[in-house]
Amino acid sequence: MRKTGSYRTKSLPLVSRLFLSHLLVMIVGVSSFVIISKLSSPRFFVLHLQQLEGRGFSLVYARPYLVKGFETAWNRSTFWSVIVGATAAGGLSYWVSRRIVQPLTQIEKVTQKFAAGHLDERLPPSEIPEINQLATSFNRMAVSLEDVEHRRRELVSDLTHELRTPLTVLRGYLEELAASRIEATPDVYQRLAKETRRLERLINDLQELSKAEAGYLPINLQPVNLRPLLESLVQKFADQLLDDGPQLRLDCPPQLPLVLADIDRVEQVLVNLLGNAITYTKEGSITVRVWTASETGKAIAPRLWIAITDTGIGISPQDLPQVFERFWRAEKSRNQHTGGTGIGLAISQRLVELQGGEIEVESQVGVGSTFRFYLPLA
Ligand code: ADP
């Protein structure tokens, strides 16, 4: 187990420190008041009596009594003022100290619970602005940690599920072969190789996705002209299409503005989108359309949009929100033979986002799908 650093010291707790500091301020204030007034008040009083005598009042006999009376009155009232004032100030200081320390104690409790795995713990708002700011930051961090933890659990469970299928098939065949219940034909080996390839692809895709999600994927943003890349990709994919398959077209203006992007990552996204379009389109057309847009009136930087529209099987409205989720495939059994892992679009989305863009989809079952993304202009 990892040792967590604890910084408990034997010094006084904050509430006592605050209280004592208030007390010290009060003692200094009261003492200076008492000392100064003790020294100066009788002198002022005597001075006042002398002024009265100067105006013709005869105070010769009364003077010692008056001075004595003044001192007694001063001593008594000062004594009671100090007692009442000190008690009130002490009480108030204790109350204020507790009010400052209480949210801090609560923060400590909540962070301890959070560290112990209660990721839904949150700090309540505080009326002290600085502590409220701390609580807001803590809560923001808690939400993001909870999200990461949730996604980690989801990934592990999805991964187990995805790995199980090819492994079960492999084990099944190997056991049958070992028991000589099936013949070791080239077809059997082909199937074994196919499942192994599937595992390999899954691991590669996952590695790429985890790098992209963690932000470790190096993205080398540069001003690039995407037209040559689009032309060569469309050409390459068109060569692979059968005569009775869909038509692949590029609808792109001859002069494209430069975009700020990593050309290899854009190619990765386009290969995935074009690959999907070809896999899910039996006939009709696949069009790659490129255009520039800047939303007038809004402070939005001009962008280059690339859309891949197919006339394929389409995606149902309830499935659309899931297409960019990793491992998601429509009707998994149908897709089993396509060899898809359901990670391609998740990687594409992350790659587009890492380049400052966004990807979206529109689709209608039986009509076709449009996947489009934008990249910022250089
Ligand atoms: P993969 O293609 O490897 O299965 P993706 O993440 O690229 O994974 O795609 C996820 C799923 O989205 C696919 O399995 C498919 O069901 C659906 N899909 C993607 N592109 C299209 C498309 N152009 N037309 C219809 N369905 C699509």
* Quaternary form: single chain
Order of helices and strands: HHHHEHEEHEEHHEE
Structural class: alpha+beta
CATH class membership of the largest domain = Alpha Beta
Strands of the widest sheet, in order across it, are 2-4-5-7-6
User: Can you tell me the residue ranges where pLDDT is under 50 for at least 5 consecutive residues?
Assistant: none
Count of spatially separate domains: 3
Number of helices: 8
CATH architecture descriptor of the largest domain? 2-Layer Sandwich
Give a quick account of the main beta sheet: strands, pairing sense, barrel closure.
5 strands, mixed
Mean pLDDT: 88
CATH topology name of the largest domain, in short, is Heat Shock Protein 90
Overview of the molecule:
By secondary structure, the chain is of the alpha+beta class. The chain folds into three domains: 2-118, no CATH class; 131-214, Orthogonal Bundle (Helix Hairpins), CATH 1.10.287.130; 222-376, Heat Shock Protein 90 (2-Layer Sandwich). It is 58% helix and 12% strand. The protein contains eight helices and seven strands; from the N terminus they run H-H-H-H-E-H-E-E-H-E-E-H-H-E-E. The strands form two sheets. Strands 2-4-5-7-6 form a five-stranded mixed beta sheet. The chain has a two-stranded antiparallel ribbon with strand order 1-3. Strand 6 and strand 7 (368-376) form a beta hairpin. The longest helix is centred in the N-terminal third of the chain and has 53 residues, at 63-115. 17% of the residues are buried. The model has no long low-confidence stretch (mean pLDDT 88). The site of adenosine-5'-diphosphate has 22 residues, from helix 6 and helix 8.
